[in-house]
From TrEMBL:
Keywords assigned by UniProt, alphabetized: Metal-binding, Phosphoprotein, WD repeat, Zinc, Zinc-finger
UniProt similarity note: Belongs to the VPS8 family.
Biased composition (Polar residues): 1220-1230
UniProt function note: Plays a role in vesicle-mediated protein trafficking of the endocytic membrane transport pathway. Believed to act as a component of the putative CORVET endosomal tethering complexes which is proposed to be involved in the Rab5-to-Rab7 endosome conversion probably implicating MON1A/B, and via binding SNAREs and SNARE complexes to mediate tethering and docking events during SNARE-mediated membrane fusion. The CORVET complex is proposed to function as a Rab5 effector to mediate early endosome fusion probably in specific endosome subpopulations.
Pfam entry (one): Beta-prop_VPS8
Protein name in UniProt: Vacuolar protein sorting-associated protein 8 homolog
Gene Ontology molecular function terms on file: zinc ion binding
Residues covered by region (Disordered): 1220-1265
Amino acid sequence: MENEPDHENVEQSLCAKTTEEELNKSFNLEASLSKFSYIDLDKELEFKNDLIDDKEFDIPQVDTPPTLESILNETDDEEESFVLEDPTLLNIDTIDSHSYDTSSVASSDSGDRTNLKRKKKLPDSFSLHGSVMRHSLLKGISAQIVSAADKVDAGLPTAIAVSSLIAVGTSHGLALIFDQNQALRLCLGNTSVGGQYGAISALSINNDCSRLLCGFAKGQITMWDLASGKLLRSITDAHPPGTAILHIKFTDDPTLAICNDSGGSVFELTFKRVMGVRTCESRCLFSGSKGEVCCIEPLHSKPELKDHPITQFSLLAMASLTKILVIGLKPSLKVWMTFPYGRMDPSSVPLLAWHFVAVHNYVNPMLAFCRGDVVHFLLVKRDESGAIHVTKQKHLHLYYDLINFTWINSRTVVLLDSVEKLHVIDRQTQEELETVEISEVQLVYNSSHFKSLATGGNVSQALALVGEKACYQSISSYGGQIFYLGTKSVYVMMLRSWRERVDHLLKQDCLTEALALAWSFHEGKAKAVVGLSGDASKRKAVVADRMVEILFHYADRALKKCPDQGKIQVMEQHFQVVLMCWENRLYDAMIYVYNRGMNEFISPMEKLFRVISPPLNAGRTLTDEQVVMGNKLLVYISCCLAGRAYPLGDIPEDLVPLVKNQVFEFLIRLHSAEASPEEEIYPYVRTLLHFDTREFLNVLALTFEDFKNDKQAVEYQQRIVDILLKVMVENSDFTPSQVGCLFTFLARQLAKPDNTLFVNRTLFDQVLEFLCSPDDDSRHSERQQVLLELLQAGGIVQFEESRLIRMAEKAEFYQICEFMYEREHQYDKIIDCYLRDPLREEEVFNYIHNILSIPGHSAEEKQSVWQKAMDHIEELVSLKPCKAAELVATHFSEQIEIVIKKLQNQVLLFKFLRSLLDPREGIHVNQESLQMPPSVTEQFIELLCQFDPNQVIETLQILECYRLEETIQITQKYQLHEVTAYLLEKKGDIHGAFLIMLKRLQSKLQEITHQDEKAKEDLSLKDVEDTMVETIALCQRNSHNLNQQQREALWFPLLEAMMAPQKLSGSAAPHLHPEALRSLTMQVLNSMAAFIALPSILQRILQDPVYGKGKLGEIQGLILGMLDTFNYEQTLLETTTSLLNQDLHWSLCNLRASVTRGLNPKQDYCSICLQQYKRRQEMADEIIVFSCGHLYHSFCLQNKECTIETEGRTRWTCYKCSSSNKAGKLSENSSEIKKGKTAPSQVKMSPPCPPSKGDPAVKKAASEPVLDPQQIQAFDQLCRLYRGSSRLALLTELSQNRSSDSYRPFSGSQSGPAFNSIFQNENFQLQLIPPPVTED
């Protein structure tokens, strides 16, 4: 356990500053620390069920749960009301009633009482688990507590509560509030109030850290706003006077709190706010007259578990001097469980603690309670019926009395015994992980409050005895942290992370223990693990990395203590490290031991060379293990030559030159130490070149970069180069790629400005000869790529360029030729390189396009490239016609005719023109920008007629630039009748196109008539049907624009052509397909019936001389088919007429109901002059009633300018309804009229006195009904509807007219202008839809 107390007098600001880092560890990591318990819940869910080996059983359910009243009325000497089935689980022993001394700070030198209890030997938990807890002094808060006591007479600290803030209560009634940085934010209360209320005896902060409850030694309770520091409530009547507040705690409900006083009673406090006045209602939950409660603990749930079903009960655990009770505050007060202690030490402190744990994959709250040395665990669950079940878990036997119990997470608990020792226990295995002495904290005890000294000590002796060791208000836990309040300080404790625990052991040089602890983390056997997340594989990987670091640290420390350092024989005898590493394939560790332990850098290379050299020299393939060793060897050599240690770190500076020289001398040895007679020279260089030529040369290149340009470095470089040349050039074992890598490496080195190497130029000529003139043609691309890399690396200066080009052309190294031509700006010759190279020939188009479009090339260069492209235009077109056409259209659209002349091959010309002119080929060129003459298009059409006649019509439909007459001649030349007919139709010669199609149809019919039975019947019929369909489509497309005579000139010849083969049925050789021909003929009749009258068709058939001689039976099928069509159309017409008549009747009924509906005025007086309409004297005055119910005299409305003239008619607007928005009234009225929203009105003449019965005018008015303009207009519309107009148009116009009519006068007036109805439109087509269902 790491103790960091600070006993020096430090200024307040300095303390706050020096401890800011420590507090940040505990507070700024609050988000993660507060989730420790829930992380552990998740971990427990992942554990196997066999880890939970507790002996569990359900507490039996009683028939009728005890009521609170019955519990309060129990006597202490009666039989226990709740007995477990197995009393042995309680482990009730006979305990003497010896009165122990108080284990307080004042009496910290009291004797150790553990000899009175069962003694168990403490396991060496430190060696097994390391330091589990980390505790730190909060220097800033501690200093300010002392300062407040000295400067403002705050008194000594008495209570602490922790959330995201820290609240400390003092003996003079002040509450000090500190933030996360240990800064004092608020000082609540004053010493005068403290003198009245006494010391603060209890504190509680609500969930959102907005309210603080303070309980005082004289019984008062205050509530503070932690944001503003205002006093919100001062409660003096919540419990009986003369008793101190022992506990006060918020529940999860911010309006509900629980308090416990020194009389042993428990009260529920409900905070309300009525009409802006804050009130507090108190309810007694437990009376101290029947048993004193000295500890309460409500169940708090974190936000992650706010929806847990158990939270709706708002459970509260209470510990009296004789029993434990669990009650539910919601939805109604109910006792869920009672549990008696049995025999116990009367001075033992009852303890309660809730926590959510995971058992059998379910998360439920667990209550831990104890009094004395046995801790019981109760798992609380809610079943489907809503009842709560309590399950007894395995209890924990201790050898010491407890004064505090705290959950630090769901698997780990922290216990404080009566001699102020902390015990960290794993709950499931009950293993003690660590013991810590905290007497230096000088813990504050609450004895004076339990004795109620501030109110005269009016408490029972039993409660006062318990209070001797009560420290409830001195210890507070939050987010996996435990805060301890001392008389002059505040300490915080938390679990160390797994890495911190390992590092703590390493700092104390406990390497073996640290490695064992890390291994327990790796195997998942460690306890109180914090900081390891993810699945098992990820956790193991993280721990394994740390274990490797520990092993390196261990090996480094062991090597430094090795006897006779530097002698490998002693090393192997003493540690056998090298042998063990080699056997376990720990090559990195072996190299590390050699380098760090003995400063030996050559032996590791010798060991690795002995493994990989034999198979490489024999030409065998290396195994995976040997490849790994070879790669490690290369990396090791690279590190040594660069001055770096392997696998990490740096070689000591004084050894770097020596190591480099040793490694170089080793690599360039002529023979190995145990060389056989057959071994070739320079075996190590040869082995590395065979293993990986490129990587070995890269290692050398990096080494050359690091070398200083001194004499020795130059000699080493020249020497290694000479050896490389001797090994590779004089040997045929290396591939062209390997030889090329060497000379590329040499070319790069020679091309450096400060180069000091010398290489014979003839060697480069030999390499060129080797690459360009091989014995066979294998590896052609590899040899070309190697030579290209050599030239690009600067090796071109080593060759004669003309000879290089000749040899490259001979070897068909076209990329080499391109590289050389590019240097000489001979871009036209590069085109030949692309065209000759089968792998890159299609890239020639992009190359030509780049040369011609990218700026930077001269006009002469572009012209030469284009000329070369023109010379090879046939090759380009045959290679890819689309790319060639796009290239020509992009850069030389004005020279298309020249290109066409160069293309002598007609097939190539066709492909070129097709790619150029047909947009379907995907060419990305604007066709309008080409500006080609029609002759080019016609030439393409002619080629299309030759090579792809089936696509001519589709192509003509998308082509534009061609002449009809010339194109018709071309199609006639190649006898493409369909195409000719299409062009004639496009030209406007419909009859000419029809004759061509008719002639083709007749020829097809003639083929069917005269073919033999062995011919392909299906194919012939299909041709006839296709030709007939095309002819019908031609007639249908153009019949709309022809008169009756012209239509008959199209359709009747077609009908005659289809009926002609059927007339021959009476001959000696009837045709083979009578049914098929009849079906086709019916298809023609059905199609022409839409354009030719049926009588004309029948007359034409009957005028035929064949059918005029009594052969009507042959056309009976045709006539019956026509009659069926007629019957179908007649039925359709009758159905349509019936539907229309029904709609018309429905519309008439609705229209009649709407035009005859009267208006009911709301009053019998004018809304403007307020006079009854009968009392006005004006004879000509009218009464106007609007649909809104307002009634006016017409004269009054005119005076108010409520009339609008539109289209020669007067429209009225309601004065009251339109006066609400007088501003812009005229514009609004006009807009309402346009929208049809003016209120409808009715007008009636109202004479001032009743007329005489003999007045003829009155009789005439009464006898003749008068229609208003709207009624007349509706009647006209109905007349038009009756003449056969559409229901849709009727409803549309009716809805328009209804919205536009604003009034309906009783007296006659001028009708509106003539109405132009949509119903009179001849082009209106009937749409059959069901009538809409609407309500009046």
